[in-house]
Structure formats: structure tokens, C-alpha cells
Amino acid sequence: MSNTTKTFPKLAVPGFSFGDLLGMFKRSDVGFAIGILFIIMVLIAPIPAWMLDLLLATSIIMSILILMTSLFIQNPLEFSSFPTVLLVATMFRLSLNLASTRLILSHGHEGTAAAGAVIEAFGHFVMGGNFVIGVVVFTILIVVNFVVITKGSGRIAEVAARFSLDAMPGKQMAIDADLSAGLIEQDEARKRRKELEDESAFFGAMDGASKFVRGDAIAGLIITGINVVGGIIIGVLQQDMELATAASTFTILTVGDGLVSQIPGLIVSIAAGLLVSKGGVSGAADKALMKQFSHYPKALGLSSGVMLLIALLPGMPMLPFLFLGGGAGAIAYWLDKENKRAVINTAATKAKAEVVEKAAPADEPIGQSLKMDEIKVEVGQALIQMINSKVGGGVGERLTDQIKALRRQLAIDMGIIMPSVRVLDNMMLDSNAYVIKVKEVDAGSGRIYPNQYMVMNPNGGPVDIPGINTLEPTFGLPATWIESEHHQDAQIKGYTVVDCATVLSTHLTEVIKNNVAELISYADVQALLKELPKDQQKLVEDIVPAQITVSGIQKILQMLLSERISIRDLSSILESIADAVSMTRNPTLITEHVRMRLARQICAANQNHTGVLPIITLSPHWEHEIAESLIGSGEEKQLAIAPSKLHELMNGIRERFEDAARIGELPVLLTSPSARPHMRALVDRFRPQTTVMSQNEVHPRAKLKTVGAV
């Protein structure tokens, strides 16, 4: 048996085969175009009754498919082709209406089967032999479709399109904001923008497509009237039928045709209403409705009670209402139990997750390692009681109270709020040792002994009490740790007696004052500016950022704090800055101008107990040497003094201050305004606790006392 290959016969067109024609139908775009052309051909050319039956069945199946798809989709955009489908379905039904009208008017005199079996079956089934019933049913279907469903869904689509268009700019800005904040990636932002555009286009198309359904209903009503009147005229005048026979025959055919076309139209209208009313509801329609109805079983229970009350009304059929009321009550009871069980299960699952989370702690994010404590005190094992003491009056409580008092006092003295102090244990330290860290860098350390007291001789001599000889950690003065039993003896002898918590807090105070310039951050300066009185806020608005930035103000405040000048009078400082920025933008020169404005405050801070400002002056010789050693031009001058002369100058300053200390004075070094910044920079390296003032910073009412000259 030979293998033979069957080939499609050649068509009359050279080079075009029947296989090529089948290939065209396999392509969806070509098939869709041919389907649209077929609908147009049905509008023009007559078709036989058997083909009309097939096409009417196709119309019914298509409308049911559209309705089921509208029910099962999760969101309206999944059926974004609905406006196009609606147009095609409407045109298809109108073409079938015209084809059936042609058959009814041409062959209606032959009987009720003239327009096919489908129309005949609908006419007899719905009307039951009485064409008046058919007319009434058809009219009601038209009213339901045109007045209720089509009008309502059209209004929903119109409002949804308007709101979607109005909300588009805000939604696009929200997407751009999420993208800028790094919450979403570029691809996700592009996807959201596409969904937003599709949603707006869909509801806009639905607003116009709803007019198709409305026009379909009106066209069906007009076509039905034409068929009845035209059929009776043709039957009586042309086919010699009796008026009653013609009216019955053509009415059955016309109403059957109207029902066959309007029932699919009604189904598609319902699908359109479901689709446009689905905005804001996610999930299939049945799941969304059941979820929302079942969420409130009390409503179902009250409905059950109302139905049971109606059943008890006189003359009311009891059985239907009892059945529905009992069923609704049972469902409400079951839903209430299910909701309570779901709540219990959710709570149990959450509790189990919390237990698992606590049992297996997650790794600390790497970002946590970047966080830094501004001020931290680490203590050895013997000093842990200073942290954990809970007993009233205990060492731990005294330390906590003193740190709180320290923060309050620094706010008063320096004008800044000290960061929180973190106190924790460090097993790597010696048992009685502690370390004070500023921004994770060691800034001070010492050894203290709980339940003991540090004793110092005010005269600088030795302490005549047995104990552990040491150096006071803050200032390096000789001291002795004694047992608590010798406490009263030390006080009787006039020694200075300090407990361990006070030793630590005093050391902490000095460390903070020495590093206070590093502790005032950009955010702290912003907070200080915001807390100014309202009448001073206008000054801030005038100079920031037009004349000086917040970081520039931060730099000036840091320079003041580095010399332990309080910035509590921030209003005066800002006024002085406003005056100075018109002349210079150099932070050092602006700071010098601010110091002149704070002359009263600086003098008061350095007075002795008698209200006198002790000073050590810089001789004209050294003033001249410093002026000659300045190099550079303008505001960028720097001091370049010879090392031998620098050594001589520092020795002279050290000797004069030591002489003053012997007579109980703590003087300031007084220089000329031009030399003050440079002298401060030099003295800060050798004697940082020395206050350097310029002659312009001496208040006119200050009482001066010269205790020496360099």
C-alpha cells in the first residue's frame, strides 16, 4: 500500500491554495476581522431559518459566557476587553434582529415556524398561546433592561470614570514618592503606572459602552413594533390573511423574536452592571459577597427574628417565613461560632509565633552596629551594684540621681541638653575600674571602691587616715580611699570627703564639659532654634539660610562651648551673628564678635568669690612678637612663631598661673583682640583649662585685679 499525501485543491487564484485559506482562519486577528465582516453581511444578505437558529443559539451562549466571566474575575481590569465585547455582542444581536425581521415579514404567512424553531419555541413557551401575555412579558423585560439595569450601570461607569480621572494625578504622585523613597523598584513603579492608566481607560470606555446596551434596548422595542404592524399589513393586504389570524401569527413571531434578542441583551446588561459595580471589591463576586455578609452574623440573626415575627402576623403564610427565619437563624449561629473560633485560632497562632520568635531571636540587623552612644560609662564587676541598686539611698540610686541632676545643671550652665548617659558593665575591665567614653572613644577612666570614701587634704598635704593612696581621677590631686568607719574622723580633721558615686559623677561632669562642643549636633541646633520664643523666630527666618546656614551656627556654638561659654542666651548670640555676617563669613571672626556681645556673661563666669576678675596680662613684647609672626592675608592669617620663642612663652604663662594658684587665684589670660584666637589655640595644647579673654570682652563694670604679667 503506497503512502499518498492528500493536498488541498487549487483555487482559481494562481498561487493561493485552500490550505492557505485555513491558515488565515487560524490567525486570531484575521478570524476576528472575518467575524465582524460576517455580522455586516448578515445585516445586508438574507439567511435561511436553520442558520438563524444556529446564530441565535450562539448569541445566547455568548451572553451567558460574558456573565459567567464577569462573576469569576478578581478585578475589573481582568476583563478590560469588555467594552469591545459589548459592542460586538450588540451588533451581533441587532444583525440577527434584522435577519429575523426579514424572515418574519417574508414568510410569516406560512406559519409560526417561518423564522426558525428557536423563535417559534420562545413565542409558544413564554406566551402560552396568548399573544397578550407575550406582549406584557416582553414590555416588562424592556423596562427592566432599559430603565433599571442599563441606566444604573451607565451611571456607575460615568461616576467611576470621572473619579478615576480626577484621582490619577494624586496616585501618580504617590507612585513617584514611593519610588523616590526607595520603597519600590523602577519596574514596580512602571507596573503601577500601567495599571493606573489601564484603569482610567477601562472606566472611560465602560462609560461609553453602556450606551450600546441602552441603544440595543431602544432598537429592540422599535423593531418589535415595526414587525407587528408591518407583519399585519403584509398578511392582510398582500397574503389575504384574516386580521385575527395575521395579528396572532405575526405577534407570536415578533414577540418570540424580541424575547430571543432581549434575553441575551438582559444577560449582558447584568454582566456590565456587575463589572462596573465591582470597583473596590477584590476577588470573585461570590467570595466577596459571602465574606462580607458572613462577617456580621448579628445582621443575619436580626433578619431571622424579623422573618419569624412576620410569620406570626394574622393571615400571613407561616411555613415559608418560618422556614426562611429558622434557616437564617441557624446560619447566623454557625457563622458566629466560626468567627469566634477564627479569633481564638488567630490569637493562638500569634502567641505561638511570639514564643518562637523569643525562643529563636533573630540576628541583629547590621545597621544596628552603626549606632553610637554619645556618652557611655562602662564599669567593672565590683561596680555593677551602682547600676542595679534598687534600695532607697543606695549607691545605684545616688548615681542615677546625680546623673539626672548633672543633665539639669548642664542645661542651666551651658545652655544645652546633655544626651542620655548609658551605664553598663564591662567584664573586661578591672573589678573597680570604670571608663567614660564619648562617641565610643575613651575620654576618661579611674578606679573607685564601693562603700568607701575618697578623702583629700584641702592644703595638698598627706591624709592622716589609713587607706588606699591614689590620685583623684578628675584633676589628678592626691587622695586616699578610706573605709566607711573612718568617715566621721575625716570630717572632724577637715578633710574633703566624697563618696564613690560623687567621684564618678564629678569626673563625668568634667569629661562632658571638655567635650561638650562635640556633643552638640546639627539636630540639637535645629531643636534649639525651634524652641526660641516667637518674637525671636523672625530673626531666625531673616538670617537662616539667607545669610548663614544652620551648620554655620552650629560651628559658632561649638567654638563657644569649647571654651566653656554658655549658649543659654541664644537670642543674644543670634543677634550678634546677624550683625557680624554683614561684615564677614569667617566663623572664627564671627565667634569673636559674639564673645564681645557676651562680655558680661564671660566676666561673671570667671569672677572669684569676691566679685573680682583676676587677670594675667600679655606684655607688649609678646603682643608684638605674635603680631609679627602672623602670616597670610585677609581673614586667613595663621600664627607661625619660632619653636624657641613658643617654648619661652608657654613657660612664662605656666609660671604666672602657678604663682596665682599659690595665692588662691584662678585668673584669666588677657590679650589684644587680634591675638586672642591665636593665643587660645596655643594655650589649649599646653593648658586647656586656661581662659583666654580679649580686652574687648572685659565688661565696663567688671572689677579687675592684675595678679601677674607674661
Commentary on this structure:
The chain has 710 residues and is of the alpha/beta class. Helix content is 62%, strand content 9%. The protein has a four-stranded mixed beta sheet with strand order 2-1-3-4, with helices on one face. It has a four-stranded antiparallel beta sheet with strand order 6-7-5-8. A hairpin with a 2-residue loop joins strand 3 and strand 4. Helix 2 packs parallel to helix 4, helix 13 runs parallel beside helix 15 and helix 19 packs across helix 21. The longest helix has 53 residues. It is elongated. The N terminus is likely disordered.
Notable traits:
710 residues; alpha/beta; four-stranded antiparallel sheet; 25 helices; 14 strands; 62% helix; elongated; disordered N terminus
Largest sheet entry: 4 strands, mixed
**Termini, distance in Å?**
131 Å
The residue ranges in which pLDDT falls below 50 over 5 or more consecutive positions are 1-16, 390-394
- Computed over alpha carbons, the radius of gyration is 49 Å
Counted by DSSP, the helix tally is 25
> Based on DSSP secondary structure assignment, what is the total number of beta strands?
14
Physical arrangement of strands within the biggest beta sheet? 2-1-3-4
Query: What is the helix content?
Result: 55-70%
Structural class: alpha/beta
Strand content: 5-15%
What is the averaged pLDDT score? 79
Query: What characteristic shape results from the CA principal axes?
Result: elongated
